[in-house]
Amino acid sequence: MNNGDKKIRVIVYIDGYNFYYGLRNAYKGKYKWLDFQALAQGFLQPDMVLVEVKYFTAVTKGDKETQSKQGVYLKALSANCDKLQIIYGRFLSKLKQCKECGNKYKVYEEKKTDVNIACQILNDAHLDRYDCCYIVSGDSDLVPPVEIVKQSFPAKKVVIAHPPKRKSNELCKVADGFFAISKSKIQTSQLPNIITNKRGSQLTKPKLWI
Question: What would you report as the CA-atom Rg of the chain, rounded to the nearest whole angstrom?
Answer without folding.
Answer: 18
